[in-house]
Specification:
Elements (H helix, E strand, L loop, with lengths): L1 H12 L4 H23 L3 H16 L6 H24 L4 H17 L4 H20 L7 H22 L4 H28 L5 H29 L3 H30 L24 H20 L9 H11 L11 H25 L9 H15 L20 H23 L5 H10 L6 H29 L3 H18 L4 H18 L5 H24 L5 H27 L7 H18 L1 H4 L6 H29 L13 H20 L7 E2 L4 H4 L15 H18 L6 E2 L4
Parallel strand pairs: 1-2
Helix pairs in contact: 1-8, 2-3, 2-7, 2-18, 3-6, 3-7, 4-6, 4-7, 5-6, 5-15, 8-9, 8-10, 8-11, 9-10, 10-13, 10-24, 11-12, 11-13, 12-13, 12-14, 15-16, 15-20, 16-20, 17-19, 17-20, 18-19, 21-22, 21-24, 21-25, 22-24, 24-27, 25-27
């Protein structure tokens, strides 16, 4: 049991073990390279060159399939040989070498437009040229360096394809386990929220919010791996639907718990921002007694997520499953206030989603102890699986940008200008170590798209470098001239660098700088002045990057966020319109694909707003506005996902059917999204958001005696109503006029 618990925690902390695999693969390639070169008896300088080359050849490869990875690695070797040769040939020709370095940087960044392979080859070309400068490559020493590069690339291939093998199917399987572990962690956090006292509510709510975001992150990671990791489109579609069901029902359960606990309506977890007053629980007749049963059922739900119902587990777990699924039937609900009854219904729906997830991931389950409620849930799941359409790809043609409008071209020009400034400034600081400024300028442009993002990344790089220099001083003094001890510590630091890279850029910079301090020691060039020069060159490179980003074809943070905000609104409109249309009787479309496109657009916007929400920003009001807008958009995305998931059930779910009257509600929502988008695109727009009667009143029947809501469930109405209200709330921080409906 302890082993399983540790495995679940590891899976949840590192979904798919991606960071662990990246670290082990890179360390394995370096260690194997050092072992082979050590047996040959090469010099320490060549050992350093081989270690860096093996690291570059390993982390540069980004393709998901093994065959393309092998092709890129094979093409990377001649690129590395040419780059090393030119580095040695131009080492004594300062002007020609600098001009070529700038041209190489431009080509390396421009090559990103050709996808993962272009990005990898450009990265290899740049980094190997940097290695030639770092180890002082000469023309006479090229034959040995050629051999070192060959060994490094072969060892990288061995580490990738033999030592730390990774298949798309295996990676997807680990991501599924991570999703399951994170789902269990979310249920645990919801339990803590239920039990939290007045002084603990803020921390408990923050934990629920964080674990909900982690579950969502894992769902997106699975979405990106489905095509390569599943045998056919039908299987991929099934997993996609079950993951979406589990994610949505688990998030909704958290909202229902928050509502029941506080006796106040909760629209979304994201609106409870850090620092905002959390809802306080008050006593309510009948609620506190029912909460004990809720607590027991949440513990049972968590157990159901972690453990499959199988013959070897006996009947206890199957009885738990049957009880939870029974809450989907009104006659099985216990006596409780309405808000708590909604919690029991949410537990039942989440249990159904867990059952569907088990069937999709693990195959058929033991049915010998099924209750009638469980049997009905299975029948619903089977009916849904039968109508899955695996033929739709949901792809749309995107506008092809040309010239300087293309992001890769713009970035290539910016990096070339910034690197030129870094070369000139770096030469003034040191004629021997100027390339550190160029390296920093290059790095701050990777995975950034606006001036603000580059500024924040440069700040983090500098902070990590300063701390790494201090660590490097300590490590270098401790190691002395013990070569293999130093290399062993370098391996540890490299693993830590890759393991922490997705978590903290500052930590990654810290570990790489500490490792470089050890490499300087091995090259007998270590001194306090060299490490201080490293800090100066880093600061210079970051400054040159920011200057180039700010004055050469700049992409302002406001412009970047506005563009992404427009994309989010466009995706939101597509999902909402398609879901409402299908709920109104329209033709079915690939709603889950559209919902994931919305999620990805929102993730891009969230990343782009980091410069605005960073703790060091002096514009506090702007920071709070950015956080609030993103929270409102996450609210909209939650309700849109829920509508899409409900609309997908229409062909099979007996209690959900189309109601044409929903089109009136959808029309107002679509008009309001269009008004907000128009104002984001042009502040002079006169479009206004319309308010008016509630969504429920829009569904008033025109035929006397007809049921008010037809066959549309209350849940659909609630999601549409909340979406409508949130859009009105979104208009205010964006300064969009809000006006009553026209008479």
């Amino acid at each position: 049991m302890n082993t399983a618990r540790v495995r679940d925690r590891v899976a949840a902390s590192d979904p798919g073990l991606l960071r662990l695999a990246a670290g082990l693969r890179t360390v394995g390639a370096i260690a194997l390279t050092l072992a082979v070169l050590g047996l040959v008896g090469v010099s320490v300088r060549h050992l350093v060159a081989g270690a860096i080359a093996a690291m570059v050849a390993t982390f540069a490869i980004r393709e998901k399939q093994r065959a393309p990875q092998a092709v890129t690695l094979a093409l990377g070797l001649p690129v590395a040989l040419v780059s090393m040769s030119l580095g040695a040939l131009l080492s004594s020709r300062v002007v020609a070498g600098d001009l070529f370095f700038v041209a190489l940087i431009f080509c390396a960044v421009y090559g990103r437009r050709f996808g993962d392979r272009g990005t990898a080859l450009g990265l290899i070309g740049f980094q190997v040229y940097f290695v030639s400068l770092f180890v002082g490559a000469t023309v006479s020493g090229l034959p040995e360096l050629y051999g070192v590069l060959g060994v490094a690339f072969l060892c990288s291939a061995a580490a990738r394809f033999l030592l730390v093998r990774e298949t798309p199917a295996g990676l997807l399987e680990r991501l599924r386990e991570a999703f399951r572990a994170r789902l269990a962690q979310l249920v645990s956090a919801q339990l803590q929220l239920l039990d939290a006292g007045p002084d603990e509510i803020d921390e408990a709510l923050s934990d629920v919010r964080e674990r909900t975001a982690r579950l969502h992150e894992t769902a997106l990671m699975i979405q990106g791996r489905l095509e390569e990791g599943t045998s056919d489109a039908g299987a991929a579609r099934l997993v996609q639907r079950r993951i979406a069901d589990a994610e949505i029902t688990a998030e909704r359960l958290g909202l229902l718990l928050l509502t029941a606990r506080s006796a106040e309506r909760a629209d979304t977890l994201t609106l409870h921002l850090p620092g905002a007053p959390a809802p306080r629980a008050g006593r309510m007749p009948g609620r506190d007694e029912a909460m004990g049963r809720v607590r027991r059922d949440l513990e049972a739900l968590r157990l159901l997520v972690l453990r499959p119902v199988a013959a070897r587990t006996g009947t206890a777990l199957s009885q738990v499953r049957n009880r939870l699924l029974g809450y989907r039937e009104e006659e099985n609900l216990p006596a409780a206030p309405p808000a708590v009854l909604d919690v029991f219904r949410g537990i039942g729906e989440t249990a159904r989603a867990v059952l569907g997830l088990r069937i999709a991931l693990d195959g058929p389950q033991d049915e010998s102890d099924d209750s009638p409620a469980t049997a009905r849930s299975r029948e619903e799941l089977d009916a849904e699986d039968a109508v899955i359409d695996a033929d739709g790809d949901g792809t749309e043609a995107q506008e092809e940008l040309t010239g300087l409008r293309r992001p890769t071209t713009r970035a290539a020009v910016q990096v070339a200008v910034g690197s030129s400034l870094a070369i000139v400034g770096g030469e003034f600081l040191s004629s021997q170590r100027w390339y550190w400024a160029v390296l920093t300028c290059w790095i701050v442009f990777i995975n950034t798209a606006s001036t603000g993002e580059i500024l924040v990344k440069g700040y983090r790089r500098l902070l990590g470098t300063v701390l790494g220099v201090l660590a490097g001083i300590v490590l270098a003094g401790a190691v002395g001239q013990h070569t293999w001890t130093a290399f062993a510590l370098v391996l540890v630091l490299v693993f830590a660098m890759f393991y922490t890279a997705p978590l903290s850029y500052t930590l990654m910079s810290f570990f790489v700088t500490a490792a470089l301090g050890l490499l300087y020691t091995l090259l007998h060039t270590y001194s306090l002045s060299v490490l201080l020069l490293r800090v100066e060159e880093t600061a210079l490179g970051a400054a040159c990057g920011v200057i180039a980003a700010a004055f050469v074809l700049p992409v302002r943070t406001d412009r970047r966020t506005n563009d992404l905000l427009g994309t989010v609104l466009e995706r939101l409109d597509e999902v909402t319109e398609a879901a409402v249309d299908q709920l109104s009787g329209g033709s079915p479309v690939e709603l889950l694909d559209q919902a994931r496109d919305l999620d990805q657009a929102l993730a891009d916007l969230r990343a782009a707003t980091q410069p605005l929400t960073h703790p060091i920003t002096p514009l506090r009001a702007r920071r709070d506005t950015a956080r609030y807008v993103v929270a409102l958009l996450e609210t909209c995305a939650y309700h849109a996902r829920s509508l899409a998931a409900t609309a997908e059930l229409l062909p099979t779910h007996p209690s959900i059917a189309a109601d044409p009257r929903l089109r009136r509600a959808g029309r107002r929502i679509g008009d309001n999204i269009a008004a907000i988008a128009a104002h984001v695109a042009d502040e002079r727009s006169t479009a206004a958001v319309q308010t008016g009667p509630s969504i429920a009143s829009l569904l008033e029947t025109e035929v006397p005696g007809t049921p008010r809501f037809g066959r549309v469930t209350d849940r659909v109405l609630r999601h549409v109503q909340r979406l409508d209200e949130t859009l009105v709330g979104l208009a205010r921080p964006l300064n969009v006029p809000v006006s009553p409906p026209k008479r």
